[in-house]
Amino acid sequence: MKVLVVYAHPEPKSLNGSLFKVTIEELKRLGHEVKTSDLYAMKWKAGIDADDYPEFDKSGRLDIAGESGKGYNNSSLTKDVLEEQEKLKWADLLILQFPMWWFSMPAILKGWIDRVFTNGLAYGVGYSDEKPHGERYGEGSFKGKRAMLSITIGGSENAFSETGLSGDIFDLLYPIQHGILYYTGYSVLNPFLVHGTFSVSDEAYAKTVAELRERLKNLETEEPIAFRTQNGGDYDLKTLKLKPEAFDPKVRGLKIHLKK
Predict the structure, then answer these.
(1) What span, in angstroms and rounded, lies between the C-alpha atoms of 74 and 53?
(2) Which end is more exposed in the chain, N or C (fewer Cβ atoms within 10 Å of the end residue's Cβ)?
(3) CA 152 – CA 198 distance, rounded (Å)
């Protein structure tokens, strides 16, 4: 399998940096081809602006969706973006590895997504009378590919549970797993989560590494999260709401968007 690991942590000696190295080493040991994007080492430009579109007439009004679509179709995006898009096209599996900061991903990784997931590549495809909202949420450009999050989290697993003070981790990751990855067609695997990372003993570190290596063995066969497809019949495509008969009314929260 061809694997792209996108890594977003500024300190190579961090726990996250160590797990990044373990991931690469283990994937290669298992026979996979691996490419990486170490965003801080690359000094990745996070902010999206007119400079991302060399053919844009700066006397006009910048339409991000429109210009990114033109740039993608004309292969006229900036060199750094084009190189990352080629990696995405090449990879069968995308791993996003990052620390959870303020309940989300680091800004540099969000900026990578903003700039690389352009119109024409990641969205804006497949519109038809039968699919008025296009091919997205399980049917996008990256359909047939897999994706997984690998995250270090300072808080405890209890704090990020359904009744935990910090909120259910499934709900917190929903914008990334469903709104970015599943939206663009990826089959999303359950995340690899490491909690309580402010203080990690040697014993806990060894256990984490062993668990990570074990997870990486099954990436090709592991069942993905059972999100519902947009165009599979569960949603009313006029309102974009679940049809009443499609879900159990006792289910609450974002898990309502999982298949029964």
Answers:
(1) 11
(2) C
(3) 10
